[in-house]
Design a protein that fits this description.
The chain contains nine helices and eight strands. The protein is an alpha/beta fold and 218 residues long. The chain is globular.
Length: 218
């Protein structure tokens, strides 16, 4: 797995973040989220960060060019020597083409692009059933992970629980529609390059990890 350069794609609630963390902890392959990178660049006051900050403060969207330059800086850092997982980028074909150009300049290639595929009906059930302890933030689910003692947090003993306002069926369906519309053109783009691997994200977490490891080794 060392040296793996991976794009991880998957719908909201599909377990993509969980899998990225497993690979990061197990193999030292750094998970790179564009949101996290943007916040870090702005916080560090890098040239790209200063540019992005001015644009965001003006209420505008950060351009693809800035995102690409930010990724270029980030993957040059020592912790990316073992490889990296791009999470949340690219989202469009122009972004994918720009990323290709960047990697060519750096003499790098992508190992593969993995789509964690989960049926929409399962995702709606997963997301709408989530709730957490108001005191310590421990996560639970109506169906898959209830507290051991009903109404009492396993971690801290708290008795108050909260749900995210956007974890409702209507919002989740809208988010899924946006995801499918966005990623639909990207899948054939990477399939033509022979890089796309699709794994079953509806399987248990350990099985999804096993599929992921197998796909990156193929």
């Amino acid at each position: 797995m060392k040296g793996t350069r991976l794009i991880l794609m998957g719908p909201p609630g599909g377990g993509k973040g969980t899998q990225a963390k497993v690979l990061q902890d197990k193999y030292g392959i750094v998970q790179l989220s564009t949101g996290d990178m943007l916040r870090a660049a702005v916080g560090a006051g890098t040239p790209v960060g200063k540019e992005a900050k001015a644009i965001m403060e003006a209420g505008k969207l950060v351009s693809d060019d800035i995102i690409i330059r930010m990724i270029a800086d980030r993957i040059d850092e020592p912790d990316c020597a073992n490889g990296f997982i791009l999470d949340g980028f690219p989202r469009t074909v122009p972004q994918a083409e720009a990323l290709d150009g960047l990697l060519v300049k750096k003499g790098m290639t992508l190992t593969c692009v993995i789509e964690v595929r989960v049926p929409d009906s399962m995702l709606v059930e997963r997301i709408t059933g989530r709730f957490s302890c108001a005191k310590c933030g421990a996560g639970y689910h109506d169906k898959f992970q209830r507290p051991k003692t009903e109404g009492k947090c396993d971690s801290c003993g708290g008795v108050e629980f909260t749900r995210r306002k956007d974890d409702n069926a209507e919002t989740v369906v809208a988010r899924l529609e946006a995801y499918h519309a966005q990623t639909a053109p990207l899948l054939p783009f990477y399939e033509k390059k022979g890089l796309l691997r699709v794994i079953d994200g509806s399987a248990p977490i350990d099985e999804v990890t096993r599929q992921l490891e197998k796909a990156t080794a193929a």
